[in-house]
UniProtKB/TrEMBL annotation:
<dbReference type="InterPro" id="IPR006887">
    <property type="entry name" value="P4R3-like_central_dom"/>
</dbReference>
<dbReference type="Pfam" id="PF22972">
    <property type="entry name" value="EVH1_PP4R3"/>
</dbReference>
<feature type="domain" description="Serine/threonine-protein phosphatase 4 regulatory subunit 3-like central">
    <location>
        <begin position="148"/>
        <end position="486"/>
    </location>
</feature>
<feature type="domain" description="PP4R3 EVH1-like">
    <location>
        <begin position="10"/>
        <end position="105"/>
    </location>
</feature>
<dbReference type="GO" id="GO:0006974">
    <property type="term" value="P:DNA damage response"/>
</dbReference>
<dbReference type="InterPro" id="IPR055236">
    <property type="entry name" value="EVH1_PP4R3"/>
</dbReference>
<dbReference type="GO" id="GO:0030289">
    <property type="term" value="C:protein phosphatase 4 complex"/>
</dbReference>
<dbReference type="InterPro" id="IPR011993">
    <property type="entry name" value="PH-like_dom_sf"/>
</dbReference>
<dbReference type="InterPro" id="IPR016024">
    <property type="entry name" value="ARM-type_fold"/>
</dbReference>
<comment type="similarity">
    <text>Belongs to the SMEK family.</text>
</comment>
<keyword id="KW-0539">Nucleus</keyword>
<protein>
    <submittedName>
        <fullName>Serine/threonine-protein phosphatase 4 regulatory subunit 3</fullName>
    </submittedName>
</protein>
<dbReference type="GO" id="GO:0072542">
    <property type="term" value="F:protein phosphatase activator activity"/>
</dbReference>
<dbReference type="InterPro" id="IPR051137">
    <property type="entry name" value="PP4R3-like"/>
</dbReference>
<dbReference type="GO" id="GO:0005654">
    <property type="term" value="C:nucleoplasm"/>
</dbReference>
<dbReference type="Pfam" id="PF04802">
    <property type="entry name" value="PP4R3"/>
</dbReference>
Length: 499
């Protein structure tokens, strides 16, 4: 047992898909595949890393569809469409458990799906047809046969069995790359009819909703060509120039040198796939719901991996926050850095609470709050706005972390500055920036007012610490901060009466 609980190869995160089609983190632990007498079969067991509690006990059923995705994921559905996923720390661990699942089901472990994925009920699984139905024969990839290819795809999409056979044919024949070559040829020849056909063909490949095809579509060397195919929607009067936008307008800017190529490639891929989902694909009503959830899952797990890789990088975050705190850093450079950090914090909003908390704790330990004090007081309104946005994200997720920092800051400052702490407090910096907002619409002031309201609200203080937090923080606030608010109110009343 001890070896199993310390083997990083079998270290996993367990996820469950909730009613909103979002993945909930059910905990980190170690997975094993063993016979369970009570269940009368070989089962997947996950025991919590912290205390050994049983997080998962799932018998491997012979008719359950298991999928291996992105080398480190195993996804399946249990009764009543209860979707589960194991995210492995190491590829070798994923392969080991996958081989055991395939062994129980009598399947070939070199495939990525243990069963044909059919979207009908048990009584409608075309059992009699599945063995006798011939494989889909794809036409040669030639310009003159594009309409034939398009019509074949549309026909196959009509039934789950044929859709799955079509997916197998595309995957086995390397058809995506052949279509991409044809796309480049059609663009060179300005063959608009062919490009319209390719739009429908590629759209239907997305509709198939198969992870192996997503991996092909999102390969680094062809993803822009795939996006190019989706620029030629025959139903739109004006073509959308998505590739130009991605390459020149919304291009990911590497503000800090990323030496980890795996991280860099994952960031680029996620940025592009997110754009495909949000902008390039037709409106969601055109697509099936499960297609949208499959893409969301693809992006979600990419983001989990990116956050993990960045936290494991010993130089990236310290370098970023260090440059932001360095007074010699030019404002133009600070703007790039703080906007990247804002984007990354927004990006982390999609994480589950335990992962998000770990990420923000890392940022706090590296000095994000002292950095925000400096950037909030910046004369550059864009830097100031980005700092306010980051602070808002932090406060909305964990106001107690901010309160803890302010109380510690107060204690340290009293010792070091003998009572001259008022001007140095993060809380007072927030209040002063709210008061001094130069925006005619008071947009930043309203945002900072919301931050203050959350921080001084006793209802959102941690239950286990509420008594201490309420006493200490509110005592601090009314002793050191409230006079600033009252002072400006009194000043405004005097000025109004005088003039």
């Amino acid at each position: 047992m001890f070896d199993a609980m310390t083997d990083t190869k079998r270290r996993v995160k367990l996820y469950a898909l909730n009613a909103d089609r979002q993945w909930d983190d059910r905990g980190t632990g170690h997975v094993s595949c063993t016979y369970v007498e009570r269940l009368k079969g070989v089962s997947l067991l996950v025991r919590a890393e912290a205390d050994g509690a049983l997080l998962l006990e799932s018998k491997i059923q012979h008719d359950t569809v298991y999928q291996k995705q992105q080398d480190t994921l195993i996804v399946w559905s249990e009764a009543d469409n209860f979707d589960l996923a194991l995210s492995f720390q190491e590829k070798a661990g994923c392969e080991e458990i996958w081989e055991k699942i395939c062994s129980v089901q009598g399947k070939d472990p070199t495939i990525e799906t243990t069963q044909d994925i059919v979207e009908e009920s048990e009584d409608e699984r075309f059992d009699d047809l599945s063995d006798s139905a011939p494989p889909v024969e794809l036409p040669l990839c030639e310009i003159g046969r594009l309409k034939e290819i398009k019509d074949l795809f549309i026909t196959c999409m009509a039934t789950p069995l044929n859709k799955d056979r079509l997916a197998e044919a595309i995957e086995n024949d390397g058809y995506v790359r052949k279509l991409v070559k044809l796309f480049n040829l059609c663009e060179d020849l300005n063959n608009l009819e062919g490009l319209h056909c390719l739009y429908d063909i590629v759209k239907n490949i997305f509709l198939i909703n198969k992870n192996a095809l997503f991996e092909m579509l999102f390969a680094d060397d062809i993803i822009f060509d795939v996006i190019g195919c989706l620029e030629y929607d025959p139903t739109l009067p004006i073509r959308k120039y998505h590739r130009h936008h991605l390459k020149n307008v919304s291009k990911f800017k590497e503000v800090i040198l990323i030496t980890n190529l795996e991280l860099l490639n994952k960031i680029h891929q996620t940025h592009r796939v997110q754009y495909i989902q949000d902008v390039v694909l037709p409106t969601p009503s055109v697509f099936e719901d499960n297609m949208l959830s499959a893409l969301s899952s693809f992006i979600f797990f990419n983001k989990v991996e990116i956050v993990t890789l960045i936290q494991e990088d010993e130089k990236f975050l310290p370098d970023l926050l260090g440059q932001l705190q360095d007074e010699s850093t030019p404002d133009s450079r600070k703007l790039e850095l703080v906007q990247f950090l804002k984007e990354f914090c927004n990006f982390s909003q999609n994480l589950q609470p335990p992962q998000k908390e770990g990420f923000f704790r890392t940022l706090t330990s590296l000095g994000i709050l002292p950095m925000l004090e400096m950037t909030l007081m910046s004369e550059d309104v864009n830097i100031k706005q980005a700092a306010i946005d980051i602070l808002t994200i932090l406060v909305e997720f964990s106001p107690s972390v901010i309160r803890e920092y302010i109380l510690q800051q107060s204690s340290d400052t009293v010792t070091q500055a003998n009572g001259n702490e008022v001007e140095l407090m993060l809380m007072n910096v927030i209040i002063e920036q709210m008061i001094c907002d130069t925006d005619p619409d008071l947009g930043r002031a309203v945002q900072l007012m919301g931050v203050i309201r959350v921080l001084i609200d006793p209802e959102n203080m941690l239950p286990s610490l509420s008594k201490v937090e309420k006493t200490d923080f509110l005592n601090y606030f009314y002793k050191h901060s409230v006079q600033i608010l009252i002072g400006i109110c009194c000043t405004q009343i005097i000025l109004r009466n005088y003039f």
